[in-house]
Amino acid sequence: MAALPDKHETVTLDTFLRGLWQENPVFVMLLGMCPTLAVTNSAINALAMGLASTFVLVMSNSLVSMMRNFIPKQVRIATYIIIIATFVTMVDYAIQAISLDLYNALGAFIQLIVVNCMILGRAEAYASKQRLGATIINGLGIGAGFTFALLCLGVVREVLGAGTLFGFVLFGENFQPWVIMILPPGGFFVLGAWLLIFNWFRDRREQAERDLAEVQNER
Amino acid sequence: MSTTDTQSVTQPTPAFNMLRTLGLVATISGLLVVLSYRITLPMIEHNKQMAIERALFKVIPGAISRKNFEIVNNKIQPSGDKPQGIALYAGYDANGQLKGVALEAAAAGYQDVIRILYGYDPYCQCIRGIEVLKMAETPGIGDKINKDRNFVKNFEALEARPHASGKGLQNAIVPVKHGSKTEPWQIDAISGATISSTAVARMLNDASQQYVPIIINNLSVLENQE
Ligand SMILES: Cc1cc2nc3c(=O)[nH]c(=O)nc-3n(C[C@H](O)[C@H](O)[C@H](O)COP(=O)(O)O)c2cc1C
Fold first, then answer.
1. What was the ipTM of the complex prediction?
2. What's the domain range around B182?
3. Pairing relation of β-strands B98-108 and B113-121?
């Protein structure tokens, strides 16, 4: 977060990749926990929620970026909320048109994308200060990071809790599904395990960088 | 930061600017929402129709076409543009023979209300199938009412015979403990999901007590639909 420039960012590969790794909304910033825990009981639900949130994020932040010099600071939150709610409503209709089964599985969590702080947070911290191009690329990166994180949870929970992946049966008749994994406690278990893995990797990488710097200093 | 602060003190944002921005954003929002509503409406309607039909042809074996009726004041009539009573769908085979009717039923389950569509065959006077339309039962426990093979078997021919007096059923539909079903009007519950199984039995019993006599009394209305 501290790295966020107040000046216009030049678009580089890092503008996109940051969202996947350094600023991953779920694993690093711990944003959007409600959909992360609630709709990752299957891989397809996780994927659909990830893509829907990405669409809302990119579209709403693009509009915020285009209008950034035109939105007085006093009404900015109200403006952002209207913009986000608009695209959430569009996604809501679109999913109903694509598949009612999917719509029923995601339940109220589609509408609740409105209050996903990942989206409002991006509008406030990034899109309101950056050019359109950078905003789109950055939003796609953050959205990809969010979708990736949801899939990490959804795949593990569906495989362990139902013995299937994207609905395809993986194991034989004798497989006894670990049902707790698709129930709410399973969401917390799997999220905790992923956070552990993610932070362990990060620590190792930072340690390696520090060691390298030390070696170079000694020379 | 400090420069913008002094700026905003010396130059307050005119009220007009705030109204202009909010007004413009609200207008854009209205246009986009109405546009996407209009575009997706026919697709959503189509999906809903397909969902009803898929469920319908599953609970009325042998049906390939349907007609919509409704129950108003204990009478069955073809449904008009505006729904007036309880919806009832009749399913017909290729020769236009009535194969059965389907109705919705609902009752509180373990987590939330369970809503089902059930098919009734007036010739064997039995329920021929159920399809869960909506439920929030626990995965792996209560949601077995949808897939457990032994449980689904209950509804291949579940007796629902009208009482000779013309009111209610001859034998109420009741749930029994897993493995102790002896009569055709009993439902063999899923062990470990007694609450969900009982909810299904209760909603079928309540609905049948009320509507089976009406269906049997108005059979000619349903049959002569060519
Ligand atoms: C977390 C949890 C979820 C449950 N979900 C259901 C359910 O969806 N449907 C149900 O009938 N019973 C459910 N039960 C079990 C019921 O509390 C009850 O034990 C069971 O229906 C009794 O069945 P039995 O008489 O066959 O042992 C659940 C229990 C727990 C602890």
1. 0.83
2. 45-223
3. antiparallel
